[in-house]
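[job 0412] stage=fold_complex status=start
inputs:
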Amino acid sequence: MSLPSWRDAGIGSMARAALWLVQEVGEDNIFTKAELREAFPDVAQIDRRMRDLRDHDWKISTSREDPTLRQQEQRFVAQGAEVWIPGKSKAPKHKASLTATQRAKVLDEDGYLCRTCGIAAGESYEEGIEQAVLNVARRKVIQPNGDTAYQLVTECKRCGAGSSGRQADLGRVLEQVAALSPMEQRVLAGWIAADRRSLSPLDKVWGQYRTLPEPSRKAVADALDGAND
Ligand SMILES: [Zn+2]
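[job 0412] stage=fold_complex status=done
writing structure:
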């Protein structure tokens, strides 16, 4: 079956955005917001429709998930549901609302802090104007076996803005942890126990080393050289 054209104004704008990705951008390729808006001058919130695709398993990376991208760039990573087919563009079921008990439990487990930026409820952001409001969000988490789970996490309204497509990859985190040296794993376990990053002996000695005058820095470098011979 051939796909409808992304230019067909008779289909929904989210479906048109999806078709534009497939027909004009192509998987693994980069596009910019300016290109998107140029393609859809008649759709007021085309950026938002593009973000909605993430709820239908479309993978679109921003510079936040993919550090090789510049801020205005996004990458079309992988196609999701065929949202141009009637019935396939319904919002996924996991959007059901939380009970007050579920919400309270998650906030308690997360220490009443935004897990993304660390701000507490009612605390002011750095510029001192806005106060943080905490929400409980559903995060898509890829399990080590490749399954998808939805787990609840506390985040502030600001961090949550536009994060509906954010996902975590537990398998990858576990792989990275397993690849650390035993010493690094001990340091990480300490941070996890304290739920904060404290300075390791390595950080401390690095901080002291950096402030040394050059002859002393050289003495440290030479000592290390000697130790590793
Ligand atoms: Zn936050």
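[job 0412] summary: The mean pLDDT is 88.
[job 0412] exit 0
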